[in-house]
Fold:
Amino acid sequence: MIKRFMAVLLLAAVAGMFASLWLDFTPHETLTLTARYYAEHTAADLGAANIVTAIIVTYRGLDTLGEVTVLFLVATIVGLVLATAAAGRRADQAPAGELLMTGSRLLAPPILLFGVYVFVNGHLTPGGGFQGGAIIASGALLLLLADPLRTFSHRLITTVEALSGVTYVFIGVLGLILAGGFLDNRLLPIGTVGELFSAGAIPLIYSLIGLKVGAEFSSMLATLSATEDL
Amino acid sequence: MVFIAMAAGFILILIGFYGALTNRNLLRMIVSFTLADTGVHIVLVAVGALPGRTAPILDASVPVAEAVTRIVDPVPQALVLTAIVIGLGVTTLMLAYAYRLFAQKGTLDIAKFTELKW
Structure:
């Protein structure tokens, strides 16, 4: 009881902090200096229609490389932590219903296609590599739900992940040689803002990120699903 | 609108903290953490929202020349995108460790893990 009281007391303090922040907050009337720079220069310099994508893939591209690395580490650690438990799986599960089996078989390809659509159009629409990768992994999750004993080809997942990761870094280094710096997207022609083939290397890089993230999420799901029931 | 979103975010953070502090079950604590995580994302996006403006995507309705006066701040949105992805990684790790702890002790009750208690 005393513990719960202390927790509520602590939360009341945090709530008071939040309340003062909330009461003091006035929304900006104009963009901040950084945001203004991005708004003014993205279209002319990088040719990307989606400014958030331009920030993530090009302006702060190195951070995104780090982020992808973190995801890779998570996938590896999850595999490592759960690896010893992966032996011996129950095969006496009742099969999923006809509806789920047929539905998943019908829906998985469109879901994969939609994921690809989302990351290929990342520089034009609210979408991109991380979102598209998550959608692809949701397709993999649907397949796992329909048949928990299904195994994905680890070789395929690892190959896709490794190849897209290496190509991502390779494009970054190419930008260093051919354009203004590491992960500079101007090594390909910028084109017209708003077209599919525009924004230089951004669609290419974001597609690679999408493939990599999709492969990583799928491998996490596969590891979690392949783990022995207790 | 910005204030409502921000208040909702703060309330979500508080709900998440309350759940993480009062629940003893590891899975419930993980769910609480993801709630608090979502609250932080909403607050961050709300900070970058400017009233009466639209998404930072240039198209027919937001010409390049008017972008500065028509779009919201894109920087917090980029930050939140990163935060969501990292948050997912953290959640996955927590789940994997919870699984290992359960495999070792046969329980998810945090009070039963006494090794780090003093």
Notes: The longest helix of chain B spans residues 74-105. Chain B touches chain A through 47 residues (CB under 8 Å).
